[in-house]
Design goal:
The protein is of the alpha/beta class and about 450 residues long. The protein contains 13 helices and 18 strands. It has two domains: about 150 residues, no CATH class; about 220 residues, Rossmann fold (3-Layer(aba) Sandwich), CATH 3.40.50.
Length: about 450
């Protein structure tokens, strides 16, 4: 049949962003007008807007993977997640419209679009400053794509304090080095010294595990040449359940160790859907609020970003307006306060008592507040900006604990991605502080169906 050149329309890309990788060995061509239309549809929270933004991310990644290639010669299309060092099934090339038909180069740019005036100015600066390197810095992916097509060097703005790659975002746990000898500390129970020259790789509240012996440890402090560790409490045992919840895997056990420790004032939990982030956080909060009286009440808040189109105005008080956003809270409460050995009236009484100690608050009204002796859960934290996360965490008063939970693969806020999310910002920023701890939950425990969907859809 031979190779073909497919010209993609905007509606194809907005219908399925993965269509960029669906044509096998055939080549693709994207007109400049398609990029313009993607730019016009990228704003909003609809599926069309999300797809338009995802297409832009894919195009930006393809350009980045081919940064040493001439764009006029076509860019090789590599599927997402492909390792540049590994061979891959033959893919076609991606071509952009780099010149207007029968017109000069500048006519390719529609001057009625504001962003294109910036591109025209960059081209002009390149012409008049032949000995100066002109670089366009923008957070707008589409603008950077068009700049690359026009041979304008363009870069994303990234704060140097933010990670360049999520691979450097620590998981909060790691395997104990093989054949590592531990020296027991005299006079202390279940405390050891780990002797290593790589002590800088360890930090407080990092968890270590030995696959051979199933022993689990928690880093207490680091010193030149040695690391002090304690045995982690085992919440996978039936005798150590928290509000009736038993840890089902190693990561959940480590999460409970952080959530139940009052000296850890900030806990961040990352994980895909069904890994137990909300259930663990709420169970630990109820146990410490209702049983131990460590905190006066639980406060839950989250960014009000809808999954689909906004349903409009919600009547009622602040808490009533927030209730529809807290379906995850109600679902988990149903699990936590409905044990099978209690009758209906006992369950209802427990439900009413628990709800009196849980307050639902909006992020919009947090400015100026101070939380004293509160257990604060920030749900869907991946949809908050670094500035918003700073504004929330600085609300912490004496005796309070903040738990930030989220999934970096479910970012719905326009202009945020997994690198610029406020949750990423907090995980990295608090890594070295002994009063904070982080765990990335990886194993789905909601149901086999949910686990399979999370991994394969």
């Amino acid at each position: 049949m031979g190779s073909r050149l497919y010209v993609l329309d905007t509606n194809v890309l907005m219908h399925d962003p993965m269509s960029l990788f669906a044509f096998g060995e055939h080549d693709l061509f994207i007109p400049m007008k398609v990029l313009e239309e993607l730019d016009q549809h990228k704003k909003g929270l609809s599926d069309v807007a999300r797809n338009a933004r995802q297409v832009s991310r894919f195009l930006d990644q393809i350009i980045h993977d081919n940064q040493d290639s001439e764009i006029q010669q076509g860019l090789f299309i590599h599927t997402p997640g492909w390792d540049l060092k590994q061979p891959e099934v033959t893919q076609g090339r991606l071509f952009f419209q780099t010149e207007a038909a029968a017109e000069n180069h500048l006519k390719l740019i529609d001057s009625t679009v504001a962003d294109n005036e910036i591109l025209r100015l960059c081209l002009h600066l390149q012409q008049v400053n032949t000995h100066t390197r002109v670089v366009l810095v923008s957070k707008d992916i589409n603008l950077r794509i068009k700049a690359a097509i026009l041979h304008i060097e363009a870069k994303d703005y990234r704060d140097q304090s933010n990670p360049d790659d999520l691979a450097v975002l620590h998981t909060g746990m790691q395997e104990l080095p093989a054949n590592q000898k531990l020296t027991e500390i005299p006079g202390k129970t279940q405390a050891w010294l780990l002797h290593t020259e790589k002590f800088a790789d360890y930090y407080s509240n990092l968890f270590l595990y030995d696959p051979a012996t199933a022993n689990e440890f928690r880093v207490v402090s680091t010193h030149p040449g040695k690391v002090m560790i304690h045995a982690a409490k085992n919440y996978e045992l039936e005798t150590n359940t928290i509000w009736g919840v038993q840890a089902r895997n190693r990561a959940q056990n480590f999460a409970f160790n952080l959530l139940m420790d009052p000296s850890v004032e900030l806990v961040t939990l990352l994980g895909s859907a069904g890994t137990g982030k909300t259930l663990l956080s709420l169970a630990a909060g109820l146990a410490q609020t209702m049983e131990e009286n460590r905190y006066r009440e639980i406060i839950m808040t989250r960014a009000t970003i809808p999954l689909a189109e906004d349903i409009g105005f919600l009547p009622g008080t602040e808490e009533e307006k927030m209730t529809p956003w807290m379906g995850a809270l109600m679902d988990n409460l149903e699990v936590l306060i409905s044990p099978s050995d209690k009758g209906y009236w006992a369950q209802q009484a427990t439900h009413d008592l628990v709800l009196k100690r849980i307050k639902i608050r909006s992020v919009n009204f947090m400015r100026g507040r101070t939380f004293l002796d509160r257990y604060v859960i920030i749900d869907e934290a991946q949809n908050l900006t670094p500035k918003q996360m700073k504004a929330l965490i600085t609300r912490a008063g004496p005796g309070s604990k903040f738990v930030c939970i989220g999934n970096l693969n479910q970012i719905d806020t326009p202009y945020l991605n997994e690198f610029s999310s406020g949750l990423t910002y907090v995980v990295r920023g608090f890594q070295a502080w002994p009063g904070a701890g982080h765990i990335t939950l990886q194993q789905g425990e909601r149901s086999p169906l949910a686990a399979y969907a999370s991994e394969n859809l």
